[in-house]
Specification:
The protein has 406 residues and is of the alpha+beta class. The protein is built from 16 helices and twelve strands. The N and C termini lie far apart (53 Å).
Length: 406
């Protein structure tokens, strides 16, 4: 589809082959879209927002942080945080599961990637992150940049939130310089060197990369888990199969990374949840040179958009697309489904560098909590989508906690 908005040509792609052409085959013809360009006000020139040679250099330096062997070592810390949460939940009480998952993933980021406990600061940091995410919407509308220059209350709140997040990141950087290498992300960022040039990162670059992972590693997994709890509450047969697998494999003990291969249904539950409610629900690119798409030519400067939400609900690739069915992801169920009919983490050189970390985290947190609890939506609670930079529940997710037998 094609339309014009705010003086820009916008091309919307919905066929997996065309999406592959933009994200993978001809990715050098495109830069990030306007939204992530404006996100530099919060994230700086980190991996998510940088372009060209800077992006390639930063990715080379950061890739070892997310090596499979290294992220496996974070699994114990993830489970420890989830055990603390599940042991503190009050049976029969209602709470906002979205807020709980945001709090949990924030402590996971603090303990695994920064070797620091941020739980006491979590409410304040969470509010600052929410303000920052909210501002992304304003920055992507026409004249958003000009609005940022006005002394509006919303702009002041954004600047205060950014300053609060900066204080946290720079404090952690200072602590790591004082204590030395603790085997965490921050230590590796400070020690990282480019194999080609031998140079390291400046403090500002370390801050930008740390802020990017702080935000991305906290927000997206929290939304994936929130929607998973909702789907399980609406599909008791799926929930029963999940509980049966967890009981058989774990026998009541907390999971470990070594258990994950024996929990295939748990993985499929997470995969199907991210099909129906992909946390990153849309992505955009800006053409820097001409790019043909079928009978069209995308000119330089035009915006190309692909929505995970739209493609993940396309009946050409997903029969009965709104039904929650984890067995769609059985190997034999894929059939002739195109590769890019499912791309919750993007694709190509800009595929999410923390994809393996996020898969492991979502499965371990779900397994730890679902082993002891089942959650039910509060009767009458409205469930609507809030498509911001991630796909959030508009009214939170009020659910009642029901303890399972240990």
């Amino acid at each position: 589809a094609f339309f014009r908005a705010a003086g820009m040509d916008v091309f919307v792609l919905s066929h997996p082959d065309d999406i592959q052409g933009v994200l993978v085959t001809h990715n050098r013809r495109f830069h990030k879209g306007r939204g992530l360009e404006e996100a530099r006000r919060v994230l700086g020139r980190g991996l998510l927002t940088s372009e060209g040679e800077l992006h390639r250099r930063q990715r080379r330096m950061i890739q070892p942080v997310f090596h499979h062997a290294r992220i496996a070592g974070y699994g114990r810390a993830m489970v420890d945080q989830a055990v603390r949460m599940r042991e503190g939940w009050p049976d029969g009480h209602a709470l906002d599961v979205n807020a709980e998952m945001m709090r949990l993933t924030l402590t996971v980021v603090g303990s695994t990637l920064f070797a620091a406990e941020v739980e006491e600061e979590a409410p304040e940091i969470g509010r600052a992150l929410a303000v920052a995410v909210d501002m992304f919407d304003r920055l992507t509308v026409p004249w958003g940049e000009q609005l940022m220059k006005l002394p509006l209350p919303r702009t002041r709140r954004f600047l205060e939130a950014k300053a609060r997040l900066d204080r946290t990141i720079y404090r952690l950087i200072d602590e790591r310089r004082a204590t030395g290498d603790r085997g965490d992300l921050l230590s590796m960022l400070l020690a990282a060197q480019d194999e080609e040039t031998g140079g390291g990162m400046s403090d500002e670059q370390v801050r930008d990369e740390a802020m990017t992972i702080f935000l991305a590693g906290h927000e997206t997994t929290a939304q994936a888990l929130t929607w998973t709890w909702y789907l399980l509450s609406q599909n008791p047969a799926v929930e029963e199969r999940l509980h049966a697998e967890l009981d058989e494999v774990l026998g009541g003990r907390p999971p470990t990374v070594e258990d994950l291969p024996a929990l295939p249904y748990t993985e499929r539950v997470v995969a199907e949840s991210m099909r129906l409610y992909p946390p990153a629900w849309i992505l955009g690119r800006r053409a820097v040179e001409e790019h043909p798409v079928r009978d069209c030519v995308v000119p330089p400067g035009a915006i190309v958009v692909a929505s995970q939400y739209v493609v993940h609900h396309d009946p050409r690739w997903w029969p009965d697309p709104f039904r929650f069915d984890p067995d769609r992801f059985l190997p034999q169920a894929g059939g002739e489904r195109p590769r890019f009919s499912y791309f919750p983490f993007g694709a190509g050189p800009r595929v999410c560098i923390g994809e393996s970390f996020a898969w492991m985290e979502a499965q371990l947190l779900l397994a730890t909590l679902a082993s002891r609890w089942r959650l039910r939506l509060v009767p009458g609670h409205p469930v609507d989508l809030l498509p911001r930079i991630t796909l959030r529940p508009r009214h939170g997710m009020r659910m009642v906690l029901h303890r399972r037998a240990a």
